[in-house]
Structures are given as structure tokens and as C-alpha cells.
Design goal:
mainly beta; nine-stranded antiparallel sheet; 3 helices; globular
Length: 272
């Protein structure tokens, strides 16, 4: 079992920074639904859905800041805070070894159990899933369908669920990930003025991050094939960051030769 881990890219050249939190005191996950509801005089209710996102509160309470390991963690988190306050993105996994997420390669009707993906696209490329792990499937907004499922097996890029899908996933792109892995998050705008780390006279420190899923960017990134450059089990320098990949996707520039859509299956719609 791996430790709780944060990843982020501080520059555009693809340097991935990995922060090992060692432990987490609390992890609160909620779903925010964007919708409008109109009620008619005849008692009817009409709802228009605009999408969904996950909100994450990540806490590591009162860790020792008086030793080298504690000081090093504070240094890393203070630097991360600057990145987040400037609008930077980050990824988080409660278990580094379960930091697995992939995009579905095609459309799937309800009841399907075998799903073909384009493989794990984020950070720790050695992460994997095993039988009984729980995953989350999520389609792009405005559809914003979310479904939880149990894994039967993972073989290469093919994942088999223990039971058939309850919902159809017929409008690509759609992502499937371990339930405790959040690959594209940003600081909640409501918490930008506060600090993610507080201290008691520099003896003990508490990390408290209130973050929201950057859904649009997550699915913009779905247009890119292969692994994120810089993704590894350790920090390292490559050619492209997650933020740059998302920026290029939003500009309609693929990673493939000639600015293509990065190897998406024929018929797959980019959420631009």
C-alpha cells in the first residue's frame, strides 16, 4: 500500500513534483451538482442539469515540524500553496499505488462489464487496480453522469467490472478512476485568501486543503494519447506539464504530429 501523495507541475516544461504526505487525518469527498429547477403552478418540477464536480477536503492534522522530515514537508507544502493560489492544478491519491485513471476508448451501454480504456494517463504509471477495488466512472459535463463500481480485474488497458454498468456512457469522453484518486484538482476559489497550512508556534503544523475538481480541464486532456510527460514514481524533468497539455487542448492543438487529436478513437468527440 502506498502513501497519500500529491503531484503537481510548477513549470511549463514538464517537471513533476511529488509530495509524500505519509498520512492523512481526514478525507472528505462531496459532489456538487450544477442545476436549475423550475416549479410550475400545477405542481410540476423541471430540472436542467449543467454538470457535476467533486469537492475534496484533505487534512493532515498536527504533524511534527521540529524534525528534518517535518520541516521538509512544510517547505514542500508552502511551495505548493504558491502554485495553487496562482491557479495551478494538482493531483491527489490517498494511496499512491492506486493512482490509476483512464479514459474510455468508446461508448458503452448499460449492463456492460468489460471496458476498454486508453490506459493510465497520470503521474504514477506503475499504479494498478485489483479485484474488489472501487472505481468511479464520470462523463463530461453537461451530462455529468457519475457511477461507482467494483473491479473484477484489470488486464493491460482492459478493465472488467464485477457487475454491469447501471448507466449508459454513450457521450464521450468519460473517465474511469480509482475512487480515491483525483487527477485534476484546483484550490477552491472560496479558500484562496486563506492558507492551506497553519502552525502552532512552529511546533505542530496542520495541512487543510479545500479543493474542487477541474472537470473541464480533465476532459479537455482526454484528447491526448499516451502518458503525461514527466509522469513517474519519482520527480523528474520532461518536456510538457499537465497545465500545458490542457492549455494546448483548449487551443485545439493535439500532441500528435500535425496537431491532430492525439490518437482518439474514430468518432470520439472532444469536449471543446
Amino acid at each position: 500500500m502506498g502513501n497519500p501523495t500529491i503531484w503537481y507541475y510548477p513549470d511549463t516544461s514538464g517537471t513533476v513534483i511529488e509530495i509524500d504526505l505519509a498520512d492523512v487525518s481526514d478525507l472528505e469527498v462531496s459532489t456538487e451538482q450544477f442545476r436549475t429547477t423550475a416549479e410550475g403552478l400545477n405542481g410540476s418540477i423541471r430540472t436542467t442539469n449543467y454538470g457535476v464536480r467533486h469537492r475534496l477536503r484533505l487534512v493532515r492534522a498536527r504533524f511534527n515540524g521540529q524534525n528534518t522530515a517535518g520541516e521538509d514537508l512544510v517547505i514542500a507544502l508552502r511551495t505548493l500553496e504558491s502554485h495553487l493560489k496562482r491557479g495551478g492544478r494538482f493531483g491527489f491519491a490517498l494511496d499512491k499505488d492506486k493512482a490509476w485513471a483512464a479514459f474510455l476508448k468508446t461508448r458503452y451501454a448499460s449492463t456492460k462489464t468489460v471496458l476498454q480504456t486508453n490506459g493510465n494517463n497520470f503521474f504514477n504509471t506503475s499504479a494498478t487496480l485489483v479485484s474488489t477495488d472501487i472505481v468511479v466512472l464520470q462523463s463530461a459535463n453537461p451530462e455529468g453522469t457519475v457511477e461507482y463500481a467494483r473491479v473484477s480485474s484489470l488486464s493491460g488497458d482492459k478493465i472488467t467490472l464485477a457487475a454491469g454498468l447501471r448507466n449508459p456512457f454513450m457521450n464521450p469522453p468519460a473517465v474511469i478512476r480509482h475512487r480515491d484518486f483525483y487527477p485534476v484538482m484546483q484550490l477552491n476559489p472560496a479558500s484562496v485568501d486563506g492558507s492551506i497550512i497553519t502552525t502552532d508556534q512552529r511546533y505542530n503544523y496542520t495541512l487543510d486543503i479545500d479543493a474542487v475538481e477541474d472537470v473541464d480541464s480533465l476532459f479537455k486532456y482526454s484528447g491526448f494519447a499516451g502518458q503525461l510527460t514527466g509522469s513517474s514514481s519519482t520527480s523528474g524533468s520532461r518536456s510538457l506539464s499537465l497545465d500545458t497539455a490542457i492549455k494546448r487542448a483548449k487551443e485545439g492543438v493535439g500532441l500528435g504530429v500535425g496537431g491532430d487529436d492525439g490518437g482518439l478513437p474514430k468518432g470520439t468527440r472532444l469536449n471543446r
